[in-house]
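Hi Y.,

Following your request, here is the sequence exactly as I used it, all 357 residues.
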Amino acid sequence: MHRIAVIPGDGIGPEVIPVAVDVLEAVAAHRPGLDFEFEWHDYGAERYLRDGTGFPDAEREAIAERCDAIFLGAVGDPRVPGNEHARELILETRFKLDLYVNLRPCRLLDPRLCPLKDKGVDDVKFTVFRENTEGLYVGVGGVFKKGTADEVAIQSSVNTAKGVERILRAAYEFARMSGAKKVCMSDKSNALRYGHDIWQRSWKRIAAEYPEIQSSHLYIDVLAMQLVRVPEEFEVIVTSNLFGDIITDLGAALQGGLGVAASANLNPDRGIGMFEPVHGSAPDIAGRGIANPTASVLAAALMLESLGHPAEAALVEKAVESALREGATTADLGGSMDTAGARAYLLTEVARLASGM
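Below is the corresponding structure, written out as tokens. Let me know if you'd prefer a different format.
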């Protein structure tokens, strides 16, 4: 039995996350011994506007103790200009549960979705390991003489030996376990002489422990260029928090857009993970029944794999591939279905694939 805390979030989140939950239940219905218990939570903009509750520390920790995973929908609402609730749900959860691995698989499920298809690119399959708890996102800094002509703003990047080493080691262990042959570490050590020198020294030491893996280094600007030129050359990429945030959105574009991008926030030592689609809350289409559930379903597949069910995760991915191939998708992916139609196709396809295995 896997207990999953479900937080649908804002905007289209409450429309697409239930589709992914239905897909998980459909998989479990065909797999004796695989069972889920979902506990639903209303944390999000509506709750925050109602009573000021974001994601309380005590509740976050309690969920981490009793649940195997957190399944989070999109967050963000124009009625909360500072998106304080979103920070508590995403950044504070990463920091306080020490989910130091942000894992983003960038896999092209249908060549038609790649913006480089006219250049012959039809093979995109790499995984990014983004350091998730340090760097520029920790909030160290301040403002002096705010609002004046002499205003000074300082934002400091935090890079620790522990944090850098463990994300590097996680990337190399993933490569070893998955059979990947290549790991690329990306930084900007030619300009960030202090913060990224520790990345260089740690990487060289750890890479030496994995002689069977081809290790390489690219500055982040060069990596961005090479991902556009020859994305098929990359298998595993590991980088810092800010650079990982940027480069994974480039990866999402290569695989077909944010509508097919999924993310996992993991702590391999603690076991708890938070899984989410990468797209935003899209308040402009919320409630219209046309939201694309694909990224949420692929996030559910990531969760299945993390929970120890790789075959079932692959089954869900195959169902998504079939939907893309058959045009059984929402309009943003080239189909003509609404959310309900996309859901119905995926459930039927999961049942068909599961009965044949």
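The chain has two domains: 1-100+264-357, 115-255.

Thanks again,
Q.
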